[in-house]
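hi! just following up on the protien thing from before. the input was this:
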Amino acid sequence: MNTPTFAELLRNPVQLLAFGFGSGLSPKAPGTMGTVAAVPLYLLLAQLPLTWYTAVVIAAGLIGLYLCGRSGSELEVEDHPGIVWDEFVGLWITMWAVPVTPLWILAGFVVFRVFDIWKPWPISWMDREIKGGLGVMLDDVCAGIAACAVLHFGINLGPW
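and the predicted 3d structure came back as:
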């Protein structure tokens, strides 16, 4: 499997974004490192009104179809583990309309990673059966939706 260097990422904006500004180059747990790298951008996005936040996340997801598909083609691999733009979008979906506090950010991070790693059905089916940029993005989008639902259940459950 061909993995670009950071210098190569800097010369290729598509790869730079797909690899989460280099976070996907981590030799251990690149998906987790990509999710960590998504948090500071989430903190910026969370300052937007919810309508704009939603629009930016949808746009990032649509752009991700291209980024992940093209990166996979350039690297000649269907879903390179270093491609983490899908983790960025998945976390941002997870955090939709969630309080911007350390507790909820940590909870969102953990719940999203659990869904992304565990991949319960139908997420596991999507991960296996759907190819290209759509396949790379879709399982993380669905993991983000499931994680968001869990967080909102928790938000409405208690006196947080």
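The chain has eight helices and no strands.
The chain has one domain: 6-157.
cheers
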